[in-house]
């Protein structure tokens, strides 16, 4: 199973177009950037699945030749997997709407929220609802499972909030499993138990402290992100390789290369699970 991180920033990327904070200025001056958090995963190197479809999806596909189409118009992209319906996780579907065949896998609540937004109205997608805890087959090699992870409904969604609005995605090939969890408000025993069995965990690296998002008028917890200053001890006792993704432009870890035994993900990073 091959993973490629296509983006590792939270919504807006790094630098953010309207922000002149220290991290954004530093990235701007050095010509560095992080696209919004997304990955590509494949079990055979031929069929690929996007884990989140961000507003950066065009640039992300262009950045990774295995995702380029084959003549005349055959894309190796077979599906999109969504852990939540936040705009930075799903707005890329708008750019993929010409796809002849694309399956979108997410819980029923996430699919309902995405479709309620209206922007997917022209999309010829196969909407594939996931039932919590049940493995489904993506192809001969890969299987997918969603497990509840405390989070929130997307801000644009008008209906009632469901516990299915945010999940951890587990992707398995044979005995190897990876988990994608870019949004977690707080851990649960069930989730912790499931994460103990994974080989690699892509985890919520949004903020360091709860007060970091004051400019949006909310605490990190209110935005369903568990601050790293509190989650790191919990992460450190899990057995998996841990890689942070969805890193907000405000996060001071962007000035660091190392964070103990937890890795700071970067765009283009690859993980092979044999
Ligand atoms: Zn900034």
Can you give a write-up of this model?
It is a single chain. The protein is of the alpha/beta class and 274 residues long. The longest helix has 9 residues, at 22-30. Helices cover 16% and strands 25% of the residues. It contains six helices and 14 strands. Zinc ion binds at residues 16, 19, 21, 23-24, 249.
Secondary-structure class = alpha/beta
- Please compute the radius of gyration using only Cα atoms: 17 Å
Mean pLDDT: 95
Largest sheet, if any? 7 strands, mixed
Widest β-sheet, arrangement of strands: 6-5-4-3-2-1-14
Distance between the termini: 6 Å
Bound compounds? zinc ion
The percent range for strand residues is: 15-25%
Q: Indicate the percent of residues in helices.
A: 10-25%
What can be said about this structure in brief?
The protein has 274 residues and is α/β, with parallel strands linked by helices. It is built from 6 helices and 14 strands.
Search tags:
274 residues; 25% strand; binds zinc ion; 7-stranded mixed β-sheet; 14 strands; alpha/beta
Write the layout of secondary structure elements.
Elements (H helix, E strand, L loop, with lengths): L1 E6 L14 H9 L7 E5 L5 E4 L5 H6 L14 E5 L5 H4 L11 E6 H9 L8 E6 L5 E2 L5 E6 L18 E7 L2 E6 L7 H7 L4 E5 L23 H9 L4 E5 L17 E2 L5 E3 L2
Parallel strand pairs: 3-4, 4-5, 5-6, 10-11, 11-12, 12-13
Antiparallel strand pairs: 1-2, 1-14, 2-3, 7-8, 8-9, 9-10
This protein binds zinc ion.
Zinc ion binds next to helix 1.
């Amino acid at each position: 199973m091959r993973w490629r991180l296509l983006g590792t920033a939270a919504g807006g990327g790094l630098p953010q177009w309207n922000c002149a904070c220290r991290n954004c200025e530093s990235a701007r001056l050095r010509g560095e950037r992080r696209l919004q958090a997304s990955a590509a995963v494949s079990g055979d190197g031929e069929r690929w699945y996007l884990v989140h479809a961000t507003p950066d999806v065009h640039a992300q596909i262009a950045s990774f030749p295995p995702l380029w189409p084959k003549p005349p118009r055959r894309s190796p992209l077979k599906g999109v997997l969504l852990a939540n319906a936040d705009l930075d996780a799903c707005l890329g579907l708008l750019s993929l709407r010409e796809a002849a065949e694309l399956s979108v896998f997410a819980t029923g609540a996430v699919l309902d929220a995405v479709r309620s937004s209206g922007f997917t109205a022209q999309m010829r997608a196969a909407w594939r609802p996931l039932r919590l805890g049940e493995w489904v087959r993506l192809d001969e090699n890969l299987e997918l499972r969603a497990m509840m992870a405390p989070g929130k409904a997307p801000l644009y969604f008008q209906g009632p909030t469901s516990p299915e609005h945010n999940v951890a995605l587990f992707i398995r090939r044979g005995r190897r499993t990876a988990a994608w969890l870019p949004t977690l408000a707080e851990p649960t025993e069930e989730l912790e138990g499931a994460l103990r069995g994974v080989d690699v965990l892509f985890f919520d690296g949004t903020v360091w402290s709860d007060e970091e998002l004051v400019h949006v008028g909310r605490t990190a917890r209110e935005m369903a992100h568990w601050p790293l200053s509190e989650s790191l001890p919990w992460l450190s006792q899990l057995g998996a390789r841990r890689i942070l993704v969805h890193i907000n432009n405000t996060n001071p870890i962007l000035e660091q290369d190392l964070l103990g035994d937890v890795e700071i993900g970067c765009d283009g990073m690859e993980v092979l699970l044999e």
